[in-house]
Amino acid sequence: MAPQPLTDLEIAETLSGLPGWRAEDDHLVRSYTLAGHPAAVALLVHISVAQEELNHHAELTLVYNRLGIALNTHSVGGKITELDARLARRIEEIAAGHGVSG
């Protein structure tokens, strides 16, 4: 079954379980600040592996020790779907293992 855009209520429910994430311009977005550039790159690489496993990819922006993430689903017109929520939850798990909190 093809992914369907989440309703505003479903997005709010998703965000309630994802501290630090917000909805902005039809994206789920989050930014992490890490100890330095190598730590930020390591997190980016780990996220890229998870993206391949889930066959769903984020827009990732790396600036020195900051990693920005923006998620939406292009196949439904750039809206937020359960695929984005699933990847955001996985990214939170990965980030915790890289010393990122809240």
From TrEMBL:
Its EC number is 4.2.1.96. The keyword Lyase applies. InterPro entries: PCD_sf, Pterin_deHydtase. Keywords: Lyase. It catalyses: (4aS,6R)-4a-hydroxy-L-erythro-5,6,7,8-tetrahydrobiopterin = (6R)-L-erythro-6,7-dihydrobiopterin + H2O. It comes from the Bacteria. GO terms for molecular function: 4-alpha-hydroxytetrahydrobiopterin dehydratase activity. Signal peptide: none annotated. It is an enzyme of class 4 (lyase). Belongs to the pterin-4-alpha-carbinolamine dehydratase family. This is Putative pterin-4-alpha-carbinolamine dehydratase. It comes from Streptomyces carpaticus. The lineage of its organism: Bacteria, Bacillati, Actinomycetota, Actinomycetes, Kitasatosporales.
